[in-house]
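Handout for the seminar on molecular recognition.
Each group receives one record of this type.
Step one: identify the two inputs.
Step two: read the structure output and locate the region that could contact 6R9.
Step three: write two sentences on what you found, then compare them with the reference statements printed after the record.
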Amino acid sequence: MSQNSIDSLLTETRRFAPDPGFADARVAGPELYERAAADRLGYWAERARELHWHKPFETVLDWSEPPFAKWFADGQLNVAYNCLDRHVLAGNGDRVAIHWEGEPGDSRSITYAELTADVKRAANAFAALGVGEGDRVAIYMPVIPEAVVAMLAVARLGAIHSVVFGGFSADSLRARIEDAEAKLVVTADGGYRKGKVFPLKATVDTALEGETSVEHVVVVKRGGNEVAWTAGRDLWWDEAMADADLDHEAKGFDAENPLFILYTSGTTGKPKGILHTSGGYLTQCAATHHDVFDLHPESDVFWCTADIGWVTGHSYVVYGPLANGATQLMYEGTPDTPHPGRWWELIEKYKVTILYTAPTAIRSFMKLGRQIPQKFDLSSLRLLGSVGEPINPEAWVWYRDVIGGGDTPVVDTWWQTETGAIMVSALPGVTTLKPGSAQVPVPGVKIDILLDDGTRVDPPNGGLLTVREPWPSMLRGVWGDPERFVETYWEKFRDHGWRYFAGDGAHVDEDGDIWLLGRIDDVMNVSGHRLSTTEIESALVGNPMVAEAAVVGASDDTTGQAVVAFVIIKESHRAAHDDEEFVQLLRAHVAQAIGAIARPRDIYLVTELPKTRSGKIMRRLLRDVAEGRAIGDTTTLADTSVMQIISDKLRAGA
Ligand code: 6R9
């Protein structure tokens, strides 16, 4: 986040008191904070008991070997049973679980009874392919109901899913499959995006070339595009399901049985496989989904716009809403296809009551103007949520006014892939809202803003966001790399009582409300997606034309941050292309290596990079250039003229 937006955040004084009408009917009140403060572990135990346990737990938290926590460890449950069978047995089988709308306009509404039947069948089909407890299954799919069915079928078997976002390249997919040693891949022929079919199966084929741990690939027919076929390895989803038994009894698994791995960017080039387990994860997903979104499962229609390839899709499309028996909308495509009002049309059509989306989407709608949403009836909306990056107060107020009709609370929810579920958020109908602030820890979670030396900041002041006590949905590790887990998240404050270090800067105001200020490390946040500067730099230097590369996240009106790269072309290649061609080739190269979301917005060809005497690239200075600011202190540079040369060159090109 740039200095400008931090300043505007901290001078924001608008306040929105809870609407009495909302407060009268809310599902969670201030007493939750009191309950949790009086007995934190007892509070989480109560929330966990809202789930169905095959074997009830006795112990709540085992923190005898920090930072490796165990929650509800002597209990057993089945995550899929909690999301499905339980609701059918309670008489809610006819309630719609998912209203799904495809990008081309096809749609399906699936009840809890139907979804349960589909998952049972899929569990049998996967078991027949050899998937059992602890096995890894990679899921590389569009946002279609089969993706949810596949995730829940894996969970039902006590196996572990690793969902890979459908926009990732074959190389990224291969790295994730290899790291987890997946046995099965579930994919589709293709999916719809911006009015066209994009291939998925073909990317899986490329990712699996050569040696692989993968024994089978199950393919859903969605795009209707042609696919190559490897006999003996590949199976059509429909055929596998047709052959599978209908009945499947959900077995209880230990609460600490792994549920999924989800890869996320860190400060080094290699993505980390964040590991989540079952009982604690489901407890906090369900509790926060219920409280933060004021869920009335019998009447609400919830819509979280995230792709299932991100953690928000895991916790607030799949596990939270389904554990709570909610009715939700799932949409396959992009917001502007076939017209820029598509989201608002969907809200009108399905009478969506709760919308959960990202600031980058809100800002792009703001740019298009209020006339577009105003053409639709959005009066069903009664609550709005935001996630993924800091929301600037202007976007927050626009969201409330234009989308929410001026009287709809907005909850800004801070959390991470690693935290598994919401950690900081207002409670609607309880908290007086401040646009731009994520506000307070949810009941049962303890957050401290610390200085580098581990002391607490004196409000109003800024520091590093940390979590003081273990929480149920916390990550349990980095797949295959316990040292990286300790080093990345715990080492920094291990002498201050094992506090979890989130990597975010935050300010705390006089009232104790938290204002997130963005990442403090080399992780960028582009449209709410985490990208590592190092990962993109290594993709760039992986191109034979490139000698050196430096990548920074520059602030961007729409996407929050944008990828900006500074590249030195090898002397031997300079004559091969003109500048424009180099830029196009390298942008395409990054998209190919990582995925289209990582494609740099700008690439500047330079002949030097600013480095300290110890050889560290000074990204701070490059960010100044990329954001068009005066260049900061250059005195620690080995060669102080470098920045002048770079900025002269950029100005000449502009
Ligand atoms: C859920 C999710 C996590 C990073 C996190 C922070 C940023 C997320 C935010 C927010 C300010 C919010 N972030 N929500 N920053 N306000 N409400 O996004 O997970 O993809 O792992 O990203 O996103 O920087 O550290 P993930």
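Reference statements: The first strand starts at residue 61 and ends at 65. The chain has a mean pLDDT of 94.
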